[in-house]
Design brief:
The complex is a heterodimer of chains A (500) and B (553). Chain A contains 24 helices and no strands. Chain A has 500 residues and is mainly alpha-helical. Chain B is mainly beta and 553 residues long. In chain B, a hairpin with a 3-residue loop joins strand 28 and strand 29. The longest helix of chain B has 7 residues. Chain B is globular and about 65 Å long. Classes of the chains: A mainly alpha (500), B mainly beta (553). The interface between A and B is large, with 46 and 44 residues.
Amino acid sequence: MSSDQEPRAVAQDRPPGARPWLRNLVLAVALIAVAAWGFYSAFPLPPGEPERTDAAKPAVAARAPDADPPARVPLDPIMPETGADLIAEVGRVAGDLARRFPQNPDAHEMLARYQLEYADIAVAEATWQRCLELNANYAYAHIGLAKIATQRGEFDAATAHWRRAILADPQMYLHQIELGKSLLAAGEIDEAIEVLAGAVRAAPASARGHAELGAAYLQKRDDAAAKTSFEAALRLDPKYATAHFGLATACTRLGLAELAQAHEAKYVEYRSERGDELRGQRLAYDDEAALAEDFALLYSDIGKVFLAEGQPALAEQLWRRAASMHAENLACRQALAWLLMQQNKPLETIRMLRELARLEPESAAYPLEISRLYRQLGRGEDARRALEAFADSSPDSAAGQRALAEFYLQFQNAPQSAVEHARRAAELSESTQDWVLLGSAHELAGDLTAATVALERAAAIAPDDLQIRQMLALLREARATEPSEPDKPATSNNNSDNRE
Amino acid sequence: MLLVVTAAQTLAGEALAGEETTIRLHDVTPASGIQFRHTDGSSGEYYLVEAMASGLATFDYDRDGDLDIYFLNGAPLRGTVAKETPRNALYRNDGGLRFTEVTQESGLGDPGYGLGVAIGDYDGDGYQDVYLNNFGPNALYRNAGDGTFTDVTAAAGLKGSNTVGAGASFLDMEGDGDLDLYVANYIKFSYDTFKPSVFRDRKVYGGPMVFPAEADQLFRNDGDGTFTDVSRQAGISGHASWGMGTAAADFDDDGDTDIFVANDSDNNFLFQNDGRGKFKEVGLLMGVAYDYKGETLGSMGVDVGDFNNDGKLDIFHTSYQKQLTALYQNMGGGFFQDVTLRTGAGAGTFQRVNWGTGLVDFDNDGDRDIFFANGHIHDNLDEFDDTTSYLQPNQLLENKNGRRFVDVSQASGVGLRAEHSGRGACFEDFDNDGDIDAVVLNSRGLPTLLENRTQNAHGWIEIDLVGGKTNRDGVGARVWVHTKDRVQVAEVHSGRGYQSHFGSRLHFGLAEHQHVDRIEVRWIGGGRDVIRDIPAGQIITIHEGGRLVSKQP
C-alpha cells in the first residue's frame, strides 16, 4: 500500500460528524509540521546572521542551468591536509563563484566573507562595495562594511552601515543592537538609547537588548531607567553576568547598597563560571577544526548560491565537501537532504536525515520527515518506529508525541494510541493545537464527551478562535444526537475525561 | 595609514579631521646618541613572554639634576642563538637631549630577560636603586652613589623571585620610612610544557589564558638592607592573575598607599591598604576591576593622575585590540566610575594594542593629557588580520579642560606619525626646559625619544621631594600646587605605566600663571609642609621639614 492511500483509508472510517473540522485539523497540523522544520522553504543562514530580506535576496533568481557550465568547482582532488592548503582552496572556490556569477551580489558576498577573514580586508571592503553597486539595499554588504568599520574603530562609518542594514530589515533587532553599540562607542548616548529602546520593543524577549539599553542608561546617568532595564534582562536570563554587574552599578548609585552587593555577588559567581568556560575553550582550541568549521559553513552557503543559479550539481559538490570537512555541520546536511529529496532519492535522503537527527537529537523535525518518507515508500512500520524511537529518546517533546498521535490517527487507524500521545502532547505544550488534536483523537475513538472536554480546553486558551468554537458547536450537536449510554461504542475511553 | 588613523579619530563623536593642537612632539632619537636596540629573544616558537618585553625607567642615577634613561632588554629564549649577550642599557643625560651610554661602567647591564622595572632608594642613602622584574631571576641593583651599581639581590633576600615578571612598584606600605616592594607576575611558564598556539595555520602568541596565572608578591623592607616576602600575610598571594602594569598610590585618600594592578584578560586588582601593610582586594567594589559593561580588558599599562583637577587621583589603563582604553574617575572614598565613553578617553584605541602610558600635561595648560605607546604583539599579523598592523603610531589625547579628550596625534608633529611596536614609555623633562618629553621603548627596535617643542607662554614648575623621616625619594608623598584659579594634585609614584618607572620629579603646568601661590606637601605618615609664593619656571627641591632649594633651568 502506498503512503498516499493511508489517509484515505483512515478517512473512510471516520464518524460522519467529525469530518468537517478534522479535515481542517489535519491540514493545519501538516502545515505546522512543515513550518517547524522549514528546510524546504529556506536554507539556514550562518549562526548569528539574520534571515535574508527581500532586499538582500539574490539579484538573479534561480535559473535553468547554463548550456555548458564548467563541470566542477575548483576543489582539490583530495581534502587538503594543511590549514594553509585548505585556506587556498576556499579562496579559489569563492573567487570562482564571483567570476561565474558577476551580477549576483550573493556570489560577491561569499567572496567578501572569505576575504574578510582570510585575505585582505581592503579587498573585502571593495567586494562588498561591488555588492552594493548591484543592489544598493543589499543588507549583507552593509553588515560586512559595518563590521569592518567597527574593527577599525570607525564608529561613525559603522553607524551609517548599520542604519542601512536596518532599513533593509527594520525588524532585525540584532542590527539595532549593533547600531546602538556603535552610537554608544561614538559617544552618542541619547541616540544610542533611542535605538536600543527600539531593539527592545522589536524583541522584548531578548535579554541582551535590555542589558545593552541598561548600559546606555548608565552612561546617561539615568540610573533608575538602567535598573529597570537590567532587571528586565535578568528576568529573561537570571544568569546574565553583565546584567548583574550593571544592576549592581545602578543600585550603588541609587543608594541601594544591599541590593548592589547581592548583584555584585551574582556577577562574580557567573563571571567566574564564564571565565572558566572561556579558558577551557582556549585550551581546547584546535585550529584545524576551527578552520574546517568555518569553511564548511561557507561552502554550505556557496552551494546555495550555485543552486539559486541553477547549478545543483556544483552545489552538491560543495555540500558534500562541507559534510566531509566538518562532521557536525548542519547546513550542508540539510541542503543535501533537500537536494536528495528533489532528486527523488528517498533512502539516501533518509540516511542524511538520520545524520541530522544524530546531530540534533532534540529536534523532532528529522524523525518526522524520516517517518513521512517511509510512509511514502509504503514502509509504515519503519515510519512508526522512527517516531517511536524519537518519543522514547525525547519523552518530553510535545512535537514527538504530537507526531505519533497524528500517525496513529491518520495512518494506523488506532485512535486509542493516538489519544495517549495526543494527551501527552497537550500536557507538555498546553497549546491549542494539541488540545484540538486530542479532541480529534477522542472523537475518532468514539468518546464525544472527552472530545468536547479537550476542545473546551482549546477554546479556553484561544477564546477568540472561531474555528475552534465552530468545532465545539458541532461536537456538542453530535453529542446531543448520540445514542444512549448502553449503545456507546466499547472503544471509548471515559477515564480520560477528567484529566483534560 | 594616514587615512585610517584620521578616520579612527572619529571615536567619541569628535569632529577630529583637522583637529588642532599647540602640542608638538618631535622625534630626536637620531641626534640623541641613543643607540640601544631592543631584542625580545624570539626564536620563532612564539613564547608569549617575548611579546610582552620590555619596560624602561627614567631617573637621576647620578644626581646631577637631569634625568637619565635605563632601557630593559630581552634575552635569548630557548632556540635562539645570540652573537652577543643582550643587556639592559643605561644612558646618562648630558643635557640638551644628548645621552651617553654608561652601561658598562655603571654595572647596570643586567643580562636577564627584562620585563619590568621599579626605581626607589630602598636603603635611604640618597641614591635611587633599581629593581628588575625579569623572566627568570629578578635582580636588585644598589646605587653606590659613584655612578656604579652592585647586584645585591641575594644579600637583600630577593633571590627567590624567579617567575615571568611584569610591573613592580616601591611603596612604603606601613609608613615606617622605608620602601617595600610590590612585584607583579604574569604567567606560569615552562619550556617543557609549552605548546605553541596556532591560528589559521600560523604560529601565534597564545593569550595568557592558555597559561596558569602567577600570583604577585609583596616584599617588606626590613630596614637593614633585606626584604621579607609577606605576600601571604599581607593578603596578596590569594589573588593570582595575569599581572601587567602596576601603580601604587593613595586611591582612597586616607593617607596610605594602595596598589592597582592592571591584569591581562582578567579583572584588575585594587589592593586597599589598611595603613599597616595589610591589603584587601576591592577592585570590583571600587569600580576598577572591569570596564563600564562589566567586561574584562587586556589591561596593559596604567597611570594615575587627576585628569579633571577635582583633587582626586584617577586611573587610566591601556588595553588590547578591539577594546577601548579605560579611564576611571575617582568619585571619592576610593570609588571609581568608568568615564571612557563620556570623556572620549578611548579615542582611536579600538584597533590598536596600547602599552606604556602617562597622564601628563604636555602643553602646560594645567590639565593632564594622555599619551600611550602602541604596537601589536603578532609580527605576522598582516597574514591574518589587516584591520590593524604590527607597527603602529603612538597616540596623544589632549585634555580639554578636564572634560573631554581629543585625539590630536596627527596634529602634534611628525614625532607621533612614525610606526613602531611600542611597549614601555616614560615622560620627563629631559632637557629641563619646563615641558614634558617622552621616550618609548620599541620592541625589536630603536627607542623613540620625543622632544616637546610646544610653543606657548604657559607657566610651569617641577618639584623634587627629599624625604627625611619618610623615605628619601618621597614616594607616596602628595603635593598640591595652588594657583589663582585652580589647585592641582600629584603624588610621587614608583613603578607605573607599562612595567616602567618615571615621574619621580613632579611636573605641573600652570597655564597663564607665572607664580604659584602655595605648595603643600603631605608626606607619607601625614607630616605636612607648606611653601608660599614661588615663581614659576623653575625646578625646586622640597626637603621634608619645609626647606626649599631652587634651581633655575
